[in-house]
Amino acid sequence: MEALLNKSVRLVRGVKTDSVRYLFDKIVWNNRLIGIKGARGTGKTTLLLQRLKALSLPPHQATYWTLDDLYFTDSGLADTARLFYNRGGRILFLDEVHKYPAWSQHIKNLYDEYDDLQIIFTGSSIIDIAKEEVDLSRRALMYTLYGMSYREYMNFKYRSELPVLSFGEIISGTQVWQDKFPEKFRPLEYFAEYLQQGYYPFSLEDEEGFATRLQQVIRIIVEYDMAQLSGFDIKNAQKLLQLLYILSANVPFKPNISELARKSHIHRNTINEYLHFLEEAQLIRLVYPAGISVSTLQKPEKIFLNNSNLAFALAPNATDKGNLRETFFASQMAVHHKISLPKQGDFTINDTYVFEIGGKQKGRKQIEGMEHAFVVVDDVDFPALHIPLWVFGMLY
User: Fold this and answer.
1) Which residue in 175, 226, 294, 366 has its CB near the most CB atoms, within 10 A?
2) Contact at 8 Å (CB) between 333 and 389?
3) All domains of the chain, ordered by start, with CATH?
4) CA 78 → CA 71, 84, 112, 311, distances in Å?
């Protein structure tokens, strides 16, 4: 165990705390069992290490372990955690829990056995703790970490000091929120850059190698992380990748299940289930008509990529500006709001507000006469009549 503690010390020493993700200040850190889900590459590990560093506790009291460490191939988590506790340990940060067999059972046992041991764990976005062998949903306070907003990207990379805006402020008009921005702020200066490489925090570490690394992350998600899903046959990983590439070249995609099955060589009876897997992995976004209840086996009305960065990684020669606009809008809104498809317009938010997305010449023709309907326009800074697209990147 000393090796684990020493490794934790080295990792904490190397992490920077000058900038933290939006979720850091929203987590109720004093809860005894906290779970953080998120797609690979969104910064869950950094979040844990930053919290551990902020505690300023010695490693025998608070430590970080990743459960894909070779140490745990021949040393059990429960026994190691008990040894840690008996030596004075009180806070345990566990990373990549989905890599460890029966992880939910081990965490439940530790939670029940030691009422003064705090456990904070992270896992893939594909985890559904209510469907694990042991349901932790009544014990754990769960959060989801999404990729960076446009605001976070600007603040982290360019040291901007951009505000968080509420949805209500945005739809109230530019006069409500424009003065909150620095006078010299040019909102479109780095917007195209964000669309291509700003969603994943690791772009800040390696800008030149970002596209290659993102492609590798996609393969790891499909070929390894999805092996943890109940009902997913890992032998079909290659077919799932093929399905993802088909979708990426055609988004926004109105699914024809028979055609998708033919092109991907996946049986048509399982296509909807596999689409659901890809959405859980935060690789695509399934959008359904407004006002309906959604089941896993239901065919979506439209399919988008989860975020605009994926479009450049998966289909760089097929990126379409209209699709990038809609993908960006959906990725930023989905963090705190429900998205669906209206009969008129592009998106319905929270079953009430309708948005039509377009270029700077976009008018209200598609939503004329509709209540609670707004036009969102790209390629403009602070338009007088409509809402600029970039401002939806300030929601978190």
Assistant:
1) 226
2) no
3) 2-145 (3.40.50.300), 151-394 (no CATH)
4) 13, 10, 12, 42
Going along 74-157, which residue ranges are E strands?
91-95, 118-124, 141-145
Structure-block tokens of residue 286? 């399934």
Q: Is 74 exposed, middle or buried (0-12, 13-18, 19+ CB in 10 A)?
A: exposed
Helix (H, G, I), strand (E, B) or coil at 349: strand
Q: What is the pLDDT of residue 107?
A: 96
Quick: pLDDT tens for 320-337: 999 999 999 999 999 999
**Phi, psi (deg, nearest 5) at residue 87:** -95, 10
Could you identify the residue written with the tokens 């070249």? 249
Closest C-alpha among 384, 376, 322 to residue 167: 376
Q: What pLDDT does 233 receive?
A: 78
Residue 275 DSSP SS3: helix
pLDDT, tens digit, for every residue of 32-42? 999 999 999 99
Closest CA to 212 of 226, 225, 200, 195: 200
Q: What does the alpha-carbon distance between residue 147 and residue 312 come to, in Å, rounded to a whole number?
A: 16
* Secondary element (H or E) of residue 284: strand 284-287
Cα–Cα distances (Å) from 206 to 157, 201, 307, in that order, read: 12, 10, 19
Q: Which residues of the chain have pLDDT under 70?
A: 130, 133, 230-231, 294-297
Helix (H, G, I), strand (E, B) or coil at 195: helix
Helix (H) or strand (E) holding 303: strand 302-305
pLDDT one-digit tens code per residue, 110-157: 999 999 999 999 999 988 876 776 889 889 999 999 999 999 999 999
Q: What is the dihedral of CA 165, 169, 171, 177, to 10 degrees?
A: -80
Radius of gyration of the chain (CA): 22
Which residues is 358 bridged to in the sheet?
377
Q: Which two tokens stand for residue 189?
A: 């200066």
Q: Which residues are within 8 A (CB) of 377 and not within 5 positions of it... i.e. 6 or more apart?
A: 358, 359, 360, 362, 383, 386, 387, 388, 389
